[in-house]
Amino acid sequence: MSPLSSRGVVGLLYRFQNKPGIGRGVLHFAKDLEWPHVMLTGVTEGMLPFKLHEQAADADAPTPTSSTTASAQEAAEAHLQEERRLMDVGITRAQRSLAVSWTKRRKKGRELVAALPSRFIAEMALDKATAKEDPREKLRALRAEFAARAAVQKA
């Protein structure tokens, strides 16, 4: 069985649920599981929500009727709602802390293309109630704290 098959991923998630260490999983199999700290990485537009393959405009293709356009629009909206539920599953898995990241550029095939943060990040309204931390400052503070503890233990 491939380690990335559905049973393999679920087994990996259950194995790491109550043990120290770092586990990796996918949003689809995280439902009903929780962890103290969750990191959602690469939350960019086109990845979450996943961009459906758009049909290229073909000159020979007949023009779509209003009913086909409406049904395609409904299908796209249903897909977007499903992706929004997946994001909700991801952010509600965190018991203590949640980190959400995105990239400025991502690889698409052999090329690096510009990337934008997912629209879901803006919908979460993190800027209003969340403290943004500079990881370098946090690391400096942790080093100072550990040095102070070490000095107290030596004394």
Q: Which properties best describe this structure?
A:
155 residues, alpha+beta, Double Stranded RNA Binding Domain, two-stranded parallel ribbon, two-stranded antiparallel sheet, 4 strands, elongated, disordered N terminus
Characterise this structure.
This protein has helices spanning 6-17, 66-91, 119-124, 126-129, 135-154; strands at 35-40, 94-100, 105-108, 111-114. By secondary structure, the chain is of the alpha+beta class. It has a single domain (34-154), classed as Double Stranded RNA Binding Domain. The protein has a two-stranded parallel ribbon with strand order 1-2. Strands 3-4 form a two-stranded antiparallel sheet. It is elongated, with a radius of gyration of 21 Å.
The CATH topology: Double Stranded RNA Binding Domain
Please tally the β strands and state the result. 4
Radius of gyration: 21 Å
Q: Uncertain regions: pLDDT < 50 for 5+ in a row?
A: 1-12, 54-61
**Largest beta-sheet characterization:** 2 strands, parallel
Roughly what is the average pLDDT, rounded to an integer?
A: 76
Give the spatial strand order of the biggest sheet: 1-2
Task: Specify the overall morphology.
Answer: elongated
Count of the separate structural domains: 1
Q: Distance N terminus to C terminus?
A: 55 Å
Overall CATH architecture: 2-Layer Sandwich
Q: What portion of residues belong to β-strands? A: 5-15%
By secondary-structure content and strand pairing, the structural class works out as alpha+beta
The CATH class assignment is Alpha Beta
